[in-house]
Backbone:
């Protein structure tokens, strides 16, 4: 994707600007024709996301406040006459792994990146296999994938891939993207099948966000409302360069700890957790995990501020790292910054800073200096983002 990236000079520092959606579509159209020797006929685009409040709360029935960002996964396709799906990814780090072939009548369990695609196809089949339109229309596809969502950065690269593929299949078989809440649940189930016990937030955000709005998502009821963004607030996403993998043990361990708390206290949801319940937990680790869930499970509590949220993620849930903490501490010392916190599952990835636009240059300068002093081998990337629409059918642009 480097050929698309440009740099905007903000005093001495640089702000990375990713390609527009139209630029990505144009690149994908050209690459599709080169690779498959014919033009794409179908296409979908699904965004990544950042989250302002409620990390690790979506699987605890809490409230979260994400928004979609202008980083996209593009899926272009043309129908085949057989039952095979041929996929080429422009993002696969290993050239030998960037091409995969899937028999749509045979599900295979694999360990590489294609497991997310395979699991989405499986969930789609299980849901619609008895539908007349599925029976009549479903067949093989040539698919090209390309994404500007950084991999392993906590910006939902996997969810945007799942949503793009699911929406592509739905557009192919049924002619439109419909029932976005149910679709999000199916994509969440696909990620579970792929080995990541995630909550519902990422898929819901990628399907349902709208431009210039946050969404306040109730993860117990799977309902949401659009929340307009104050025009005086800008958002800076900072990629620490420390990659994470939510399929690894620490993420699963934290979810399991919270499930143990619920079971021991005989509760059906973290929303039922009281201060007395917290005091009754004698295991120090379980109490810290539960404390984080209790803090952020109620959207009306005044303590749900970005800075307090990060402190809880740092101290109670222990999903931050020294690199992220360095960036956040530097941002919070800049005059005018409203707040900063880690975003995504943690263990590396990105942080998000809310600030006045006029403060961006100074904030980049302070964060860069602090980071280079403490971690000279790492180079952070800075993105100025704003709320975008959720996934869309782009076939008309082909």
Residues:
């Amino acid at each position: 994707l480097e050929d698309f990236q440009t740099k905007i000079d903000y005093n001495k520092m640089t702000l990375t600007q990713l390609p527009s959606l139209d630029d990505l579509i144009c690149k994908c159209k050209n690459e599709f024709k080169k690779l498959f020797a014919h033009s794409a006929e179908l296409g979908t685009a699904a965004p990544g996301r950042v989250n302002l409040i409620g990390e690790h709360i979506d699987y605890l029935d809490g409230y979260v406040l994400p928004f979609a960002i202008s980083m996209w996964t593009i899926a272009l396709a043309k129908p085949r006459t057989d039952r095979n799906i041929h996929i080429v990814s422009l993002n696969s780090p290993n050239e030998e792994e960037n091409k995969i072939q899937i028999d749509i009548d045979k599900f295979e369990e694999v360990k590489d990146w294609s497991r997310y695609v395979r699991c989405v196809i499986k969930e789609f089949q299980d849901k619609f296999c008895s539908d007349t339109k599925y029976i009549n229309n479903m067949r093989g596809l040539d698919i090209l994938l390309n994404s500007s969502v950084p991999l392993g950065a906590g910006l939902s690269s996997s969810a945007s891939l799942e949503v793009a593929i699911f929406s592509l299949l739905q557009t192919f078989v049924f002619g439109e993207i419909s029932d976005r809440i149910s679709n999000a649940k199916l994509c969440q189930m696909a990620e579970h099948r792929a080995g990541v016990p995630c909550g519902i937030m990422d898929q819901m955000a990628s399907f349902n966000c709208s431009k210039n709005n946050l969404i306040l998502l109730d993860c117990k009821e799977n309902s949401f409302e659009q929340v307009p963004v104050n025009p005086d607030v800008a958002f800076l996403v900072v990629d620490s360069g420390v990659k994470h993998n939510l399929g690894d043990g620490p993420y699963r361990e934290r979810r399991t700890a919270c499930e143990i708390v619920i079971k021991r206290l005989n509760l059906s949801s973290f929303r039922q957790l009281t201060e007395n319940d917290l005091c009754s937990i004698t295991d120090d680790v379980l109490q810290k995990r539960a404390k984080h869930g209790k803090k952020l499970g109620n959207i009306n509590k005044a303590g749900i501020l970005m800075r307090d949220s990060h402190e809880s993620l740092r101290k109670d849930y222990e999903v931050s790292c020294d690199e992220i903490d360095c960036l956040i501490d530097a941002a919070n010392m800049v005059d005018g910054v409203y707040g900063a916190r880690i975003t995504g599952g943690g263990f590396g990835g990105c942080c998000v800073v809310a600030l006045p636009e006029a403060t961006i240059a100074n904030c980049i300068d302070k964060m860069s200096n602090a980071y280079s002093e403490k971690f000279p081998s790492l180079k952070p990337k800075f993105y100025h983002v704003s709320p975008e629409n959720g996934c869309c059918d782009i076939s008309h642009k082909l």
